[in-house]
């Protein structure tokens, strides 16, 4: 009874709730009909999310719901627009310019004069910043490589040109960027010409941004003529000079070889440059003084080196092997590096600390031995020989690089390993973990080179139309045929009742330890079964070979060192010549004219003369408006002479001066220098390379930092 009474009390409330839930949907449908194109808020949000994901890398387009403002209408709307709207439009301009700069586009041009959706711009800008944050560049200075000298025109120019143009120019030796210089979005150089008392003065923003760290520079940087002349002219690299010189030389003088297959297989001079092979220089010596033309009878020698890492942080030679075409070993020896070893790279080289104990052979001995045993028309064979020759500090004009002439990818940037090439074309397994021997690698490269000479230039190279898939299919069929033939032979032997023939096993010949006539041991211990270092060991040690005179011939007339020797005078090019192949890189030079050089002006280079503006502050305002469109911004500020300083609100707070007392303008000038530099740096893009030079006739200092 008690329960039924409570139910009767709740019935009116329950009827009211039921009526509410029945009437509410009907009322919503009448007063707020569902739009067919829009759908629910969640559906609209999901569709926008999918569209943003699909158009992430497409050109930004304005969205329909927002009313666009045309660029030409913005100035007309300014008197009627609120301050917040003007700030929003200016911020949107800045965001778009930064986004275009990060994506490497030449500049911001709104499609049909319409601004894109600001939310879309901010989302893409956020993604671009996050991607840059994952690989945030870091700057590191190695001033000790300057040998105790101050940085001057050359060092500053090298730094700016390297970060602006890229690897095509010389990398500065005193400054390093990691992981890549391409991570730097733009370079901003601010040169401030001022009296000496302001060079080392304390500036609020500079001290905070650069953490009170500066670099003392050479006094010659004050000469703006020489400074900007060095900046506008880029030194041509040695490799580029060699390439141009070889291209201009007559074909007979450049390559005095008769037409034969071997001459087609060796790398051309252009390929040697592109693949970073060493050329004769002050630190690189040629293998011969004079070379002879290549013929069909020119001998091939296969070379392989093993390296370690020393205290110089460079790869240095620890073992070298050289073999002939018939597989006989010319020499195989360990080499003692001149510096202390910090990493033996045993996993790759097979060389251990115990093996190098008591070794007296030096790099100079190896160089003399190579020059003695190689004939003038010798062809060096190997896989990625540029690293071996760099470790040897030698150069050679005739190179048959197995990694380049066998190409399975169709791309010149990818090389198939020697292990895979040997397995595919020679049906042999090397570097299988049972031990490592450089003679084994040399012999594998030699067999591949002989196969290339036998089959021709096209064989094994997808670059020349060789069909890799067809070869694999045919190769597999040959393996199947061989297996079927072996099975058939085994069945026949079983049917006849004869015992099956044992497979021939390649046994390692038992050889005693050989010694040279001088008593030096020949070769090294090897655990690889059937290795050529045991089958056909060397007959003379490398120390005795180094004493032999270098082999010559009457036909040896080609001077490799003279052919590639660069001029003593430095070759220069204007900076605009390096922008022709760049992806929309633009430069801006805000500076007065100089007498020694003409600042180039064109589609990719903008010139702004400070003297064309009413005062320096107007000039800076103009520079900041489109600074983010340029990969390099050079801004010159002059605080010498009768310079017009901007209005400073702090002047009103100063006490009235007594009669005859002159106002102190030094504090006002310091604030002006600090404010104008701050405005320029704050406008620069994130991850910009910022260089500020404060220069006077007596002293010059530089501030350098990445804006993060």
TrEMBL record:
<feature type="compositionally biased region" description="Basic and acidic residues">
    <location>
        <begin position="43"/>
        <end position="59"/>
    </location>
</feature>
<feature type="compositionally biased region" description="Acidic residues">
    <location>
        <begin position="648"/>
        <end position="661"/>
    </location>
</feature>
<dbReference type="InterPro" id="IPR034922">
    <property type="entry name" value="REX1-like_exo"/>
</dbReference>
<feature type="region of interest" description="Disordered">
    <location>
        <begin position="645"/>
        <end position="665"/>
    </location>
</feature>
<keyword id="KW-0378">Hydrolase</keyword>
<dbReference type="GO" id="GO:0004527">
    <property type="term" value="F:exonuclease activity"/>
</dbReference>
<dbReference type="Pfam" id="PF00929">
    <property type="entry name" value="RNase_T"/>
</dbReference>
<dbReference type="InterPro" id="IPR013520">
    <property type="entry name" value="Ribonucl_H"/>
</dbReference>
<dbReference type="GO" id="GO:0005634">
    <property type="term" value="C:nucleus"/>
</dbReference>
<dbReference type="InterPro" id="IPR012337">
    <property type="entry name" value="RNaseH-like_sf"/>
</dbReference>
<feature type="region of interest" description="Disordered">
    <location>
        <begin position="483"/>
        <end position="503"/>
    </location>
</feature>
<feature type="domain" description="Exonuclease">
    <location>
        <begin position="299"/>
        <end position="458"/>
    </location>
</feature>
<keyword id="KW-0540">Nuclease</keyword>
<dbReference type="GO" id="GO:0003676">
    <property type="term" value="F:nucleic acid binding"/>
</dbReference>
<protein>
    <recommendedName>
        <fullName>Exonuclease domain-containing protein</fullName>
    </recommendedName>
</protein>
<dbReference type="InterPro" id="IPR047021">
    <property type="entry name" value="REXO1/3/4-like"/>
</dbReference>
<feature type="region of interest" description="Disordered">
    <location>
        <begin position="38"/>
        <end position="63"/>
    </location>
</feature>
<dbReference type="InterPro" id="IPR036397">
    <property type="entry name" value="RNaseH_sf"/>
</dbReference>
<keyword id="KW-0269">Exonuclease</keyword>
């Amino acid at each position: 009874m008690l329960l039924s009474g409570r139910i009767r009390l709740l019935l009116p409330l329950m009827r009211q709730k039921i009526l509410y839930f029945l009437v509410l949907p009907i009322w919503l449908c009448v007063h707020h009909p569902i739009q067919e194109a829009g759908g629910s808020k969640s559906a609209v949000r999901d569709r926008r999310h999918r569209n943003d994901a699909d158009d992430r890398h497409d050109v930004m387009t304005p969205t329909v719901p927002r009313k666009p403002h045309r660029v030409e209408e913005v100035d007309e709307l300014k008197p009627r627009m609120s301050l917040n709207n003007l700030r929003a439009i200016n911020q949107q301009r800045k965001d778009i310019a930064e986004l275009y700069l990060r994506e490497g586009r030449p500049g911001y041009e709104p499609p049909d004069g319409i601004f894109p959706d600001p939310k879309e711009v901010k989302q893409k800008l956020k993604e671009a910043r996050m991607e840059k944050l994952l690989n945030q560049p870091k700057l590191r200075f190695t001033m000790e490589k300057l040998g105790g000298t101050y940085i001057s025109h050359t060092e500053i120019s090298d730094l700016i040109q390297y970060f602006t143009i890229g690897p095509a120019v010389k990398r500065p030796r005193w400054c390093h960027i990691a992981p890549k210089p391409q991570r730097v979005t733009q370079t901003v150089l601010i040169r401030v010409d001022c009296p000496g008392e302001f060079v080392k003065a304390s500036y609020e923003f500079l001290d905070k941004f650069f953490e009170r760290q500066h670099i003392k520079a050479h006094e010659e940087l004050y000469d703006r003529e020489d400074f900007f002349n060095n900046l506008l002219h880029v030194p041509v690299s040695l490799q580029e000079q060699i390439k141009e010189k070889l291209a201009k030389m007559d074909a007979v003088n450049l390559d005095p070889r008769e037409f034969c297959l071997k001459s087609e297989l060796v790398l051309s001079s252009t390929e040697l440059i592109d693949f970073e092979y060493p050329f004769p220089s002050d630190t690189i010596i040629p293998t011969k003084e004079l070379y002879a033309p290549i013929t069909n009878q020119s001998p091939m020698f296969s070379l392989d080196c093993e390296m370690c890492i020393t205290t110089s942080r460079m790869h240095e030679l620890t073992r070298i092997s050289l073999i002939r075409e018939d597989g006989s070993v010319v020499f195989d020896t360990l080499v003692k590096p001149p510096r202390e070893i910090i990493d033996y790279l045993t996993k790759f080289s097979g060389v251990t600390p115990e093996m190098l104990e008591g070794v007296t052979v030096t790099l100079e001995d190896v160089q003399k031995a190579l020059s003695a045993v190689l004939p003038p028309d010798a062809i060096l064979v190997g896989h990625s020989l540029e690293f071996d020759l760099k470790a040897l500090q030698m150069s050679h004009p005739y190179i048959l690089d197995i990694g380049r002439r066998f190409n399975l990818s169709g791309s010149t940037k990818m090389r198939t390993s020697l292990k895979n090439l040997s397995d595919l074309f020679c049906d042999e397994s090397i570097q299988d973990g049972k031990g490592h021997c450089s003679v084994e690698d040399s012999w594998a490269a030699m067999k591949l080179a002989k196969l290339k000479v036998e089959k021709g230039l096209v064989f094994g190279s997808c670059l020349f139309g060789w069909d890799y898939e067809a070869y694999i299919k045919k190769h597999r069929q040959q393996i199947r045929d061989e297996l079927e033939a072996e099975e058939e032979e085994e069945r026949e032997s079983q049917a006849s009742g004869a015992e099956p023939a044992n497979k021939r096993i390649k046994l390692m010949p038992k050889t005693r330890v050989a010694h040279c006539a001088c008593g030096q041991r020949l070769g090294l211990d090897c655990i690889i079964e059937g290795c050529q270092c045991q089958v056909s060991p060397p007959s003379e040690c490398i120390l005795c070979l180094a004493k032999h005179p270098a082999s010559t011939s009457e036909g040896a007339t080609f001077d490799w060192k003279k052919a590639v020797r660069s001029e003593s005078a430095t070759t220069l090019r204007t900076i605009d010549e390096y922008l022709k192949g760049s992806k929309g890189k633009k430069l801006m030079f805000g500076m007065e004219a100089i007498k020694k050089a003409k600042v180039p002006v064109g589609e990719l280079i903008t010139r702004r003369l400070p003297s064309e503006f009413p005062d320096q502050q107007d000039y800076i305002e103009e520079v900041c408006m489109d600074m983010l469109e340029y990969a390099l911004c050079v801004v010159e500020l002059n605080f010498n002479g009768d310079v017009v300083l901007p209005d400073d609100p702090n002047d009103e707070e100063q006490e009235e001066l007594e009669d005859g007392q002159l106002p102190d303008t030094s504090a006002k000038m310091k604030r002006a220098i600090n404010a104008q530099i701050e405005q320029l740096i704050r406008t620069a893009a994130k991850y910009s390379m910022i260089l500020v030079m404060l220069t006077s006739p007596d002293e010059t200092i530089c501030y350098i930092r990445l804006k993060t």
